[in-house]
Amino acid sequence: MRLAISLILALILCGSWLYGATFPDRGPTTASSRAALQNGVALAPANAPRAVKRAIWAANQLRSKPYRYGGGHASFHDNGYDCSGTVSYALGGAGLISSPLNSSDFRRYGERGQGRWITVYARNGHTFAVIAGLRLDTTPGDSSRYRWAPRWQRSTRGPAGFEVRHPVGL
What we know:
The protein has four helices and nine strands, in the order αβββαααββββββ. It is an alpha+beta fold and about 170 residues long. It has a single domain (about 1-165), classed as endopeptidase fold (from Nostoc punctiforme) (Alpha-Beta Complex). The strands form two sheets. Strands 4-9-5-6-7-8 form a six-stranded antiparallel beta sheet. The chain has a three-stranded mixed beta sheet with strand order 1-3-2, covered by helices on one side. Helix 2 crosses helix 3 (about 85-95). The chain starts with a helix and ends with a strand.
């Protein structure tokens, strides 16, 4: 009986570590109604809902992580992240999902259409998000000096070919 209880407690502790025990609860903010970008770090709008701020602060933690195909799929915590792993990490940090999703899963996530604060763009093979006006993506963007990796970008990207979804209420 003691062994069974010990195993159950170990699984619970391991599960909380795997799926979100270390997401930040605070971070940089801006007085603007849209997120701002300073040296690759996103500043959350001070007036944004708590979930939006937490999504931004969580995604900030990935800015030094490399791109890795399939990264962030088995767990929120990984040594590299692909596109859907990056978006999953941000939404997991916000408490909006309980485990990572792949690009196909994001095509059915939440509700259809653009959100007020968070919009997820998904198609088979790629996913990105716009959170409080900043794009969270793994593509190099419009500069050849960037490599594939999780990052915030100011530039927009057209939604052609993507399913447009948002978390309920956001």
